[in-house]
Amino acid sequence: MEIKRFVGGLALAAATTSALLAHDEPFGYLRGAQTEAKGEWELVQWSTARIGKESGRYLGLDLATELEYGVTDRFTVAGYVVSDYLLAKDSVGSSKTFDDRNRFAVTGGTIELKYQLLDPFKDSFGLALYFEPGYRSSGQVSGEKEDEIELEMKLIVQKNFFENRLIALFNYTLEPEFEKEPGDDWETDLAMEWTAGLSWKFARHWWIGAETRLDTQFRDADLGDSKFVTFSAGPTLHYSGEKFFATLAVLPQIWGWPDKTGTGGLHLNDRERVEIRFKLGTEF
After folding, report:
1. pLDDT tens digits, 48-89
2. Which value, in Å, is the radius of gyration of the alpha carbons in the chain?
3. What are the residues whose beta carbons fall under 8 Å from the beta carbon of 161, sequence distance 6 or more?
4. What is the domain range of residue 105?
5. What is the CATH number of the domain that holds 91?
6. What's 37's DSSP letter?
7. What is the mean pLDDT of residues 96-118?
8. What pTM value is reported for the model?
């Protein structure tokens, strides 16, 4: 009887620990269905390095500072300030040549709204809706001057297993993009993205996992006219403390179309060879 109580106590402690850290998202790119508790604040610094074209030197560093607040236990709002560093020297993609650049700039901002329909820690699975309108003053990949309005929408599905020690996530993203270069009319593209991943809690504060991303973009929001398709996959490592967390994700491109021959290898006009993302956050 004492042994059963001891084992049961350990299981309860493990589950409680996971629940206390439910705000964590142990992935670099996927968003979880959990939300901040009412009245809690979270500050997160996002850093994403986009590295490598077909030839030449290319480094894009995307920086975002996020402040998030729990309006209710199911509704979270956040604001981001976005800045970029871009270094391009003799850089050529699959079919595009990029202008040489070496510059840093604050390029825009976004607002995030997330509403939880089902709680992955209390219900059979988690379900949330996510909306993020944003503005940029330059192209993320090219660095060229332009006005860009993005309306990112996500459907988030999360399933926890083994007393919340294994997390499975799926995100479907639909994002209309409105772009205008100086002197030109507005253009409308439509981006779609499917991301999925698994993360396992292998030690008290540590998670290890993998995530995948399939993304495409349609010219003039025409579903019959895809500009490109890429598939990426890579590992994630996450540290979850009581008041802060850190996440490292490496996401190399595995396959892309069109490549420089127009078939399928890596697509390096709109995407890079590899992305490395680091997140550092704290609650207060």
Report:
1. 999 999 999 999 999 999 999 999 999 999 999 999 999 999
2. 20
3. 167, 168
4. 2-283
5. 2.40.160.40
6. P
7. 96
8. 0.90
